[in-house]
Every structure is written in C-alpha cells, then in structure tokens.
Specification:
648 residues; Rossmann fold; two-stranded parallel ribbon
Amino acid sequence: MKKAKPFEQILRPLYEARAVIAWTVSAVWCLTWAFVLEFGGYAIFMLVAMSGLMAAWRFHAAHQLARMKLSLIGKPLSFISTSQLAKALPSMGNNLWLGWGYRWEPRHTRRAYEVMKRDLAEIYPPSWVLRFLGEKRDPATERGMQWIHGLEQQEQDVLAPFDSLKGHCAVVATTGALKTRLVSLILYQLASRGDTVIVIDPKGDPELREICRSCAAATGEPERFLMMHPAFASQSTRMDLLKNWDRVSQVASRVSLVLSAEDSTFKDFCWNAVHSITNGMKYIGRRVNIVSLKTAMQSRVSVERLTEEALTKFFKTDGAEFSDQISQEIAKLGFSSPKQGRGKPSVVVETGSVELTAMIQVFNRDLAEDHAEARRKGIPEKLEEIKGLIAILEADKQWFGKMIVSITPMLTKLSTDDLRGLLSPDYEDLDDKRPIMDMMRVVKGKHILYVGTDTLADPSVGHALAAMLLADGSAVAAEIYNHGVEGDDGSTPRRIHVMVDEWGDVMCEPLIQQANKGRGAGIFIWALGQTLSDLVDAFGGNKSKALRFMGNMNNMIVGATQDAATMEMVSEKFGMTAIQVRSQSQSTGSKTEDTGLEFSVNRAESISETKTELFPPSLLPGMPDLQYVAMLNRSEFIKGRIPVLQMK
C-alpha cells in the first residue's frame, strides 16, 4: 500500500528553526565541555557529529519552507529586448515562447486554498525581512495577488508548439492586464519566423499599430508592414477585397457571408442575384469590385443596363444572324402594349428600353435551351451569364426590392467616402501612389497587415469592413488549401496568423468559418476579448453559440477578469481535482458526579479529500498584470507570466 504524503502547510510557523538552534547549541555545548573537562576525542567527535547532522537535517527542512514562504512575494516586472529574444529564437525550435511559468498541478490548488484562508499579513513576510533580503518591492501594496505565481518556487520557459496552436487560441483579459503586451511578444516572434500576420483592430489603437510597425522594423524588413485605416486613408494601403476568386460563385458566397439576414431562404435569393450580376459583369469584361458591384445592382435600372450591354455583345458576336428578328420585335413593340407581344402566349419582360425588351424576347424565344438543341438546330445556345440577368428582370419587382434592401446597404457602407478608394482601387489612376494589395499578395509577401476598422466612430461600417476582409481571407484560405501558394517548395510551413482584437465587435460568419475550417490552410486564429459576455452579445445573446466558438479554440490564455461567465468557463476548461483538507474540532465539558473530574476536554484533527476546481475561479480577479493561466493543446495547464518587450 502506498504511504500517504504528509499534509503540507506552507504558512505554518518555522518550527524547524528552533530545532536548528537547539542542535547547534548542543554541538557548541559539547565542544565547550570537552575542552573544560578534557573528555576523550572519540566521544566528543560522535556527540558533535550527531548534533551537527541533526542541525543540518532540520536546517534543510527549514530552508525549504523558508524558500516557499519567500516565493509567495511573486516576481517583479521583467523586461526583454528584441535582440535578446532574437538570439534565443533558434534554440526554441518549432515553438512559441510565452514567457516563464510552471505546470499547474493539484498541489498548487491545495496550496492556493490554504493561502486563501489567511489574512494578507500572514501571507507575505514582514517588511524588515524584505529589506534585509534586499527586496525593494512590497507585494502587499502591488496590484493583484502576487502570491499566485509564487505557489511554485521553480519556473521555466513556457513553450507552445505551433502544431498545437493550429487549433487556434483565445486570449481573455480585462483592459490593461495582458493583451497588448502579449500581442507584442507573440507578433515579434511570428514576424521573425517569416509568418504572415493580419491584425484586425476595431478600436484603431495607435499603440497596437506601432507595435506592428516596430516588429516589422525589428526584423530588418520594415517594408513588410502594411496599414489600412479609414481615418488615415492617405497613409493606407489600398485593398482589393474582391480580386481573389476562381469561380463566379465565390464572389456571391463571399458577399452572402457578410449579410446579417437570419432567413436562409432569403440569403439564397441574395446569393443568386449577386452570382448572376457578377457573371454578367465578367462576360462583358467589367472589373468586379465593391463599387462596380454596388453600381450594377443598386436598382432595377442598373440591372437593365447591364443586361442590355451583355445582350448587345452577344448579338454582335455569337448571335449576329438574329439582327433581323430583333428589328422586327422593336417594330412590333412600337405599336403594341409592352406587356404582351402581339398575341403571343409569352409575357414580355417590362423594361425601360424597347431595344432591351426586344433582345430579351428574341433571346428567350429563338435560341436553344441547351447544347444538344443548339447542335441539332444549328443555332446558338443561351448563355448562362445572360440567362441569370434576365431571370432577375423576370422576377417580381417586390422581391427585387427586398433583395437590394439587404445587399446594397452593406455594399454602400464599404464604398462610402474614403473607403471607395481604399476597397475598390482604381488600377488606372497613376496619380494615386498608394500601393494596391489583396489578401493573396499579403500572404505571398509574408506581410504584417494592420487593419483599423474604426468601429468606435462608425460601428456598422467597421463591422462590415472586418467581415469583408475576413471573407476575402477565407477565400484565400480555400485557394491555399486546394492549390497551395505559388513559389512554396513545401520545405517550410507557411503560417497565416489572424489576430482579432475585441472579438465582440468583429465576430461574424467568416471568422467562424476560419475557426472551423482554416487549420488545413495554415491559418491560426488569435481571438482576443475582455469577457465571454462580449462574445455572447455578439451572438445575439446566444450563449450556446458563443461556447461553440470557444470550443474551436484548443488553446486559451486568460489574464485578470471579473466576468462571472468567463470565470465559470475557465474553471470548466481546467476541470476538477481532489485536494486534502484538514479539519480540527475541540470541545469542553463539565460534570458533578465524579469527584476531581469535573471538567473534560476533547481535541480532534482529521485530514480528508474534497473535490474542487483545479484552478480556483476566485483567483482570476486578483491575477497580477502580465500574468496568466493557460490551457495549451487542450490538456496542459500553465501558470505563466510575460515580460515587457522592448524594441531594441
């Protein structure tokens, strides 16, 4: 049977120190009387040796407990330069350095519960002891409970394998506690390894923007830094968010992802409309961007113009032999009601142009429906690009109105004011010196792209911008997943890191898709937020959806937080454990029937096990700045701290 370990009490008095003094005095006493009484040398040697050994044995125990007590003062704030970190990176292998820390075990839970039962004056050493040891800090006056990190004397480098980080990572901490410094530490390492980093910042934090710029400069390649910010349009990089697509359906899917409509059937109608219009624009050779797409579908008249341009091209090239039929239709329509074609059973499509109506009539009536009919009759086949446009005009006008009410406001938000030139760049404008980029070029160039969505100034536009950017990223991820990246020989993995600050302002369907399916394309999601409640609000109050998103985060780093839902989530992620609990009882009594035994005293002490959270959630509000608890690769629980990274 395994022998039970003794119950550990780290805050008890240092009883061993008394024994050390006693045995030391014993050794000195023996030596003194040996000289006075001239005892034999062998006997004195044995007595002194025994006393010395006992003093050393008790000193070892006292020293261990004293070190544990002193470790409760925690660690001071640390600093590290980029040059120091750069020298250490080769020795870290395929791992990300997350500061220093230790693995959180049940013994640390037991120690934490013992400390939490004590007053602050009992936890930290007296000030005179700290001064004697040369410690300038007073942990009792610092922000946070410094003793949390001191529950373990030895700490080591915290290394997170990139293979485990493919499962994405959530970072949760209150304002000013951890996130910005952690991003700085992580971003520099990613930039130094040649990874692509995309930072989406709804606040437009100048400090975070400068961190991105400084990290690029610190790696010796300042040109890797790119910025896009509506408030600084003249300094921003222009981004063509509808450039990367192989199939027309991808444009429609990307736009549909950004729509917030809950009705899936209505979203399918919107998808079909965008697909048809994009197909028509491709047929006539018009560049597809946000502005041109909005222009083409902002009204029924716009769709009619696009359809007329497409039909004109068709009847000049593939259907030139139908020019006489078109002229006849124009003549007929000039003398009849536009709603009916001279007694024919088919209904004439109402348009604002007689020529367009005539071309639609000829297209619908005289052309072959499929390839087999076209080959059999020797006439052109109806093109899908034009059939889709005509279908929009044939549809009910009320349906078309509902469709554009959902789509055009979103496209308008992304093409208003300075965003028009930023997101729909004019490739022929030689006077505009701002570079034009797209997500595929960002990935190929291994850039550090900072995107400030300026949500504080304009929430709806900021959210639409973030959603569209992430949708473009999803399309690039699919391209990489299917075909890889041109120029890669496969010798080194290509990693794309998407850092999303303030997840409550950025959460959208494209981000959820990347979290679900982006791993195969080398996409790493770093989702940063202050509380789980922000995420729940982003999902319309649906806590199940928020937890489902967090379920895709196989790694989690948590700093100080006071949100009850966040603390509950962390304790559930860490799970439960069993710890030893000591209980004491004492009772007194009196009786009169036995002479001399009028009083009785009973004292009992017992040790039992109780089930509790592995990491007590009550510790999270008192977590010191730049300290965290982490769950890495779903199973490794870490208590860590990070330094302040200095760009040198």
